[in-house]
Amino acid sequence: MEAGTGYGRRARATRLEAHPIGYARTSTARQELVSQLEALHAADRHKVFSEQISTRIKVRPELEKALALARQFRDGPGHAGHLHRP
Questions:
Q1: Where is the signal peptide (predicted)?
Q2: What is the pLDDT of residues 51-76, one digit of tens each?
Q3: Which of 8, 12, 18, 41 has its CA at 20 to 30 Å from residue 1's CA atom?
């Protein structure tokens, strides 16, 4: 950080390119993903992952994919990933 400027880390963070990621899930066949997906697309998510899976099931493949992509953006040069669930 330059002495007296107050920039440093904050200045670097503002130069990162954000890639918002969305995740939608329902747990029963009677529930629908449509409203969640519409909200994520309206929020201009870079990539949207969705699945219909019970809350009793602990392994959620689409959530794992979303988190893996967020980690790639986090660890990649000059990128920041943000996971959003409506």
A1: none
A2: 999 989 999 999 999 999 988 888 87
A3: 18
